[in-house]
TrEMBL record:
Organism: Galbibacter marinus
Its EC number(s): 4.2.1.96
Keywords: Lyase
Gene3D superfamilies noted in UniProt: Transcriptional coactivator/pterin dehydratase (3.30.1360.20)
Keyword Lyase: yes
GO biological process, one term: tetrahydrobiopterin biosynthetic process
Enzyme class: lyase
Protein name in the entry: Putative pterin-4-alpha-carbinolamine dehydratase
Length: 99
């Protein structure tokens, strides 16, 4: 039996909550960020650190890496929207970025 999906946030709830995050925006239904690093190795190292946290939370980002840039989109596919899982991962990513 499949678990019930999490409650999805309304656009107003998302805007209210995202205002507390430094690196994130809400665009086209996703929490998004784009991060630039000194070089590819630094970007890839950050992806690795984020990957361990995503695995721990069992919530995996949609992301891409081009040279020194890491672009991340968060969305809970099972719930067809933004949920606590997205905000929890975004908050953890911010902690990782801020070191």
């Amino acid at each position: 039996m499949k678990a019930n999906p999490l409650k999805t946030y309304t656009e107003q709830e998302i805007e209210d909550r995202i205002s507390k995050l430094e690196y994130w925006d809400y665009q086209e239904g996703f929490l998004v960020t784009s991060l630039d690093f000194k070089n590819f190795a630094d970007a890839f190292a950050m992806m690795t650190r984020i990957a361990f946290e995503a695995e721990r939370l069992n919530h995996h980002p949609d992301w891409s890496n081009t040279y020194n840039n890491l672009s991340i989109q968060l969305y809970t596919h099972d719930s067809n929207g933004i949920t606590d899982k997205d905000f929890e991962l975004a908050e953890q990513i911010e902690k990782i970025i801020q070191g």
